[in-house]
Each structure stands twice: as structure tokens, then as C-alpha cells.
Design goal:
The chain has 275 residues and is mostly helical. The protein has one domain. 76% of the residues lie in helices and 0% in strands. It is built from 13 helices and no strands. Helix 6 runs antiparallel to helix 12. The longest helix has 32 residues. The two termini are 18 Å apart. The model has no long low-confidence stretch (mean pLDDT 87).
Length: 275
């Protein structure tokens, strides 16, 4: 819920930022002076605190897909601000998201796995994710507004998926003691990735409406996290008796619901309604 509120507030503030500040730290410097963005940032920080706690107690495959439910909170928020009612398509999109998410989590039945990986595995993860992020940023530089927003939000989603993995490991280190966490590279790399992801998603909000940026951001983060959780942390996703096929179908159903909801007039109206 908090991430949904943060996305709405930050998009409305970022949409007024000068174009030349896109993908630069100067964009954050501009946004810090906007009260609406600061309110969104407060929601973001609080949401991250809850996510940190959740990742410390659960698996990536369980926690990260649940972030998709943010769209379910965006709908009533849009209904209140625009004084409108949910359409049949909104109910359909909500049902698709809930059904797909529920079926995936029940069938996958992930366990907690491990909280860390070898240095080589982390380096391989960095290389494997840096390439699609770079391609998305490159493509964004050659695309018009809505497509630019989609590419940048996809890049941000990938970065946030990696950041979630590092956050999980950092939370485990903090459980062992502050010194263990402070002497590790993970908190510092996690902070840098978090800032980089924020610059990307704020640039996406600046480039186009939520309907362009929200689907890619909402989908990329959990999908990347599921892959990392299953491969890097060995979180025991079910693979027997055709489970992978059911899991894939469930994810496709969830993704379809995300795209339906992201294009809802109630979500689109969040860009335009006065606070």
C-alpha cells in the first residue's frame, strides 16, 4: 500500500521536473524541494522498512511478488480522488492479479532457502542484470515519452530486484551483529543500487504517465526477484508434477491483470487529480 501511495505522489511531482535533469542526480536535487515528492519519499522509506523486515523473515520468492498488490490499493485511491466507481474491467484486473498471485505462491510453495551466496555468484548476478539494464536505458534514450517511461521503469524494476536480494543478505548480516553488516560490501552496494533505481524510476515518472511506467516496474521487480531467489538463494520453488507450467501460467495471469489495472482510468486519473 505504501509503495503504491509513494508511486502516485512521486509521479505527480516528477512530471513537473525539467527534461534535462532526466537520469541525473540533479533530478533528485530538484525533487527534494517539492513537498509532494517528500511526502511520497516518506511513504517509500516506510515501505522499505517493512520490506526489509519481511525479507529478513521470508524468501524473495514469497515477499517480492506480493508487491504487485500495490495496484490493488491504487484503485480505491484513484476512486476516492476522482470520485468514480470501479468499472467491470477494474474488477477483472483485480481478480486476475489476486488469482495469479495466489496460485503462484500456493503452487511454488517456496522455502526460506539460504540468505547469502558466494562472491562469484554475486558477480555473475551483477553481470547478468547489468546487460538488460544497460539495454533498457539505451533504448529509453531513443524512444518517445510513453515508451521512454516504460523502458526506464523496466530498468528500475530489474535494479530493484537485485537490490531486494542484497537487502535480504544485509538483513541476515545485521541479525548476526552490526559489525558484520558494517564490514560487508552489501549495505553500501545496496544503497548505491537503491539510489540508482530511484533516479531511473523518477525519470520514468517524469517521462510519461503511470499507465506507461507502472506495468513494467510492477512486473520486472518480482519476476527478477523470483529468478534470483530460486537460483541464487535456492529457495526451493516446487518443480514436481508439472508445477513449473502452472507457476508460469499463474504469473502470466498476474501480469495480464497488472496491465489491465495500470490502464484503468482510476489509475490514470492519479496523474491528473489535484491533491
Amino acid at each position: 500500500m505504501l509503495y503504491a501511495v509513494a508511486a502516485v505522489l512521486q509521479q505527480r511531482a516528477a512530471s513537473t521536473a525539467p527534461v534535462e535533469r532526466s537520469l541525473r542526480l540533479g533530478l533528485l536535487a530538484y525533487l527534494i524541494s517539492r513537498p509532494l515528492w517528500l511526502l511520497g519519499a516518506a511513504a517509500d522509506v516506510t515501505a522499505f522498512g517493512l520490506q526489509f523486515w519481511a525479507l529478513d523473515h521470508g524468501s524473495l520468492v514469497l515477499v517480492q511478488p506480493l508487491l504487485v498488490s500495490g495496484l490493488l490499493f491504487a484503485l480505491p485511491l484513484g476512486a476516492v480522488l476522482s470520485r468514480s466507481r470501479l468499472r467491470p474491467a477494474d474488477w477483472l484486473g483485480s481478480a486476475l492479479v489476486v488469482t495469479g498471485l495466489s496460485v503462484f505462491l500456493v503452487v511454488a510453495n517456496p522455502d526460506r532457502g539460504r540468505a547469502d551466496a558466494s562472491t562469484g555468484a554475486w558477480l555473475l548476478l551483477g553481470a547478468a542484470t547489468a546487460v538488460p539494464v544497460a539495454l533498457c536505458v539505451w533504448a529509453a534514450g531513443r524512444a518517445p515519452g510513453p515508451r521512454r517511461a516504460a523502458f526506464l521503469s523496466a530498468a528500475a524494476g530489474i535494479v530493484y530486484g537485485v537490490t531486494a536480494a542484497i537487502t535480504k543478505s544485509a538483513a541476515h548480516l545485521l541479525d548476526l551483529g552490526f559489525t558484520h553488516a558494517a564490514l560487508s560490501w552489501k549495505p553500501y552496494v545496496g544503497i548505491c543500487l537503491g539510489i540508482g533505481g530511484m533516479v531511473m524510476d523518477q525519470s520514468a515518472y517524469q517521462a510519461g504517465p503511470l499507465a506507461s511506467s507502472l506495468p513494467a516496474l510492477t512486473v520486472a521487480d518480482p519476476v527478477v526477484s523470483i529468478i534470483i531467489g530460486a537460483v541464487l538463494f535456492e529457495e526451493g520453488v516446487e518443480i514436481a508434477n508439472g508445477a513449473p507450467f502452472t507457476e508460469a501460467i499463474a504469473l502470466l495471469v498476474m501480469i495480464a491483470g497488472v496491465f489491465v489495472l495500470a490502464r484503468s482510468p482510476l489509475v490514470v486519473s492519479l496523474d491528473e487529480t489535484e491533491a
